[in-house]
C-alpha cells in the first residue's frame, strides 16, 4: 500500500514536471513569436531611431538607436515610427513601419534638403526659362513661377500662370522637367491644368502630388484686386 502511494506521488510529480516544461516551452515560443526583426541600411544619415507607437501615433516607450548601417534589431510586433536625421545637405524624415510575420529590411538614402535644393535651383532657373521659352511660342502670355526642385535635384516642377490680355483666362498650367546629365528636358508636354500619374507613370508620385497642389494665386488676385481689369467686389 505504501509502495502504491509512493508510485502515485512520483507519477504526480512527473506529470507536474511535464506540465511545467510544456508551459515553459509554450511561453518561450509565444515570446519568440511575438517578436520580429527590422534591419536598416542607410547612407548620408547621421542618426536613425525606431520607437513603438500606439493609437494616434502616440509614443510608447523609449527610442532605440541604430548604432551602424545594416544593424538588425529585434522588437515586439506592432506599429513603429522610424526617424532619421540627414547629414548636412540631406533631408531628415520618418517612416511608419508595421512589424508582423516577416522580417523587415529598410534601405534609406534621403533626398537633398530644401535649402540645398533651393540653392541648386538658383543656378538652374535661367536655363529652365530659356528651354521653356524656346519650346512654346506663346510663353509671353504666361509667367513662369519659380517652382521647386525635388529628390536630388533631378526633378523640377512649376506652374505657368496666365498673364495675357484675355481677362477671362485664369489658367494655371503645370509641368515637370527632368535633368539627365547637364540637360533639362520637359517630361510633361504640353503643360496641363492637372498632371496625372496615369499619363506620366515615370514621374515620382510625390512630385506630381506637390505640383498639383500649387494654388492659383493669380486667379484670386485677378478677381479681388480693385486695380485689376476684372474686379468682382
Structure overview:
A hairpin with a 6-residue loop joins strand 5 (78-86) and strand 6 (93-99). The N and C termini lie far apart (109 Å). The model is unreliable at 228-233 (pLDDT under 50). This protein folds into 2 domains: 36-108, Immunoglobulins (Immunoglobulin-like), CATH 2.60.40; 114-224, no CATH class. The chain has helices spanning 2-33, 114-135, 205-212, 217-224; strands at 35-42, 45-53, 59-65, 71-76, 78-86, 93-99, 104-108, 142-144, 148-150, 155-162, 172-180, 183-186. Strands 8, 9, 10, 11 and 12 form a 5-stranded antiparallel beta sheet that branches. It has a 4-stranded antiparallel beta sheet with strand order 3-2-5-6, with no helix packed on it. The chain is of the alpha+beta class and 233 residues long. Helix content is 30%, strand content 33%.
Task: Provide key terms for this protein.
alpha+beta; 2 domains; single chain; five-stranded antiparallel beta sheet; 233 residues; Immunoglobulin-like; four-stranded antiparallel beta sheet; disordered C terminus
The number of domains is 2
Tally of helical runs: 4
Q: Give the termini distance in whole angstroms.
A: 109 Å
* Structure class: alpha+beta
Estimate the strand proportion: 25-35%
Helix content: 25-40%
Radius of gyration: 30 Å
What's the story with the biggest beta sheet? 5 strands, antiparallel
Average predicted local confidence, pLDDT = 84
Uncertain segments of ≥5 residues (pLDDT<50)? 228-233
- Note the overall shape: elongated
Amino acid at each position: 500500500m505504501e509502495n502504491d502511494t509512493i508510485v502515485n506521488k512520483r507519477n504526480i510529480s512527473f506529470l507536474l514536471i511535464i506540465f511545467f516544461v510544456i508551459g515553459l516551452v509554450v511561453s518561450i515560443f509565444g515570446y519568440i513569436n511575438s517578436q520580429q526583426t527590422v534591419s536598416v541600411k542607410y547612407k548620408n544619415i547621421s542618426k536613425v531611431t525606431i520607437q513603438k507607437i500606439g493609437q494616434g501615433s502616440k509614443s510608447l516607450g523609449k527610442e532605440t538607436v541604430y548604432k551602424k548601417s545594416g544593424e538588425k534589431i529585434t522588437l515586439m510586433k506592432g506599429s513603429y515610427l522610424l526617424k532619421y536625421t540627414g547629414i548636412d545637405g540631406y533631408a531628415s524624415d520618418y517612416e511608419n513601419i508595421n512589424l508582423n510575420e516577416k522580417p523587415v529590411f529598410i534601405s534609406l538614402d534621403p533626398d537633398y534638403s530644401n535649402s540645398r535644393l533651393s540653392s541648386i535651383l538658383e543656378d538652374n532657373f535661367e536655363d529652365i526659362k530659356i528651354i521653356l521659352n524656346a519650346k512654346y511660342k506663346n510663353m509671353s502670355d504666361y509667367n513662369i513661377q519659380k517652382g521647386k526642385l525635388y529628390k536630388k535635384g533631378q526633378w523640377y516642377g512649376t506652374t505657368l500662370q496666365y498673364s495675357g490680355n484675355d481677362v477671362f483666362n485664369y489658367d494655371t498650367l503645370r509641368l515637370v522637367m527632368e535633368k539627365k546629365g547637364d540637360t533639362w528636358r520637359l517630361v510633361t508636354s504640353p503643360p496641363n491644368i492637372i498632371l496625372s500619374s496615369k499619363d506620366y507613370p515615370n514621374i515620382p508620385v510625390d512630385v506630381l502630388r506637390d505640383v498639383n497642389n500649387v494654388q492659383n494665386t493669380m486667379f484670386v488676385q485677378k478677381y479681388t484686386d480693385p486695380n485689376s481689369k476684372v474686379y468682382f467686389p
